[in-house]
Known about the structure:
This protein has 188 residues and is an alpha+beta fold. It is built from six helices and eight strands, in the order βββααβββαβαβαα.
Amino acid sequence: MMLYKLKLxxxxxxxxxxxxxxxxxxxxAEKRALSIMTTEYVAEQLKACNSKTSDFKNDxxxxxxxxFDRLNVDDFYLEFDATPExxxxxxxxxxxxxxxxxxxxxxxxxxxxxxxxxxxxxxLVIKEISTPFNKNDMSSTSCAVxxxxxxxxxxEKALDCAINEEDYETASAIRDxxxxxxxxxxxx
Length: 188
């Protein structure tokens, strides 16, 4: 399976998005971006870790990784993949034993930055889910996020905006995603 190396490009809040932030990962060529939704708390932890402030030294990921520091970081990598049912998900992979451990996507990025673990993604994610990346315009207004990654509150707001702007094609896609989620909740 072909894997593409990723790196952290940015982490920022979304105005009027109920505390939701975006982590932007890019491929090595900086042509494609994978956007991951997160909370303000994780975004703050990511920024603290990236700048190596003392705030991060007490975070659970930092503490746990310090406990496991005897392990060779080079024996691990993080893999981001996707399925229609789950969307994007992350796995911590041991290269030696091939043991795979699921981890929340935003926490995987935080672990990568904290422990300097390489991140990769699959060809499916690059071709189907990632979006074009422009390193000259890195703002929340220029960041494309797949509709399946948006929280319910943002979907409802986006639906209202699309209807008000008479963008019925977009409204239909948003409505379909809301209905898919409702069906998924009923089946669980």
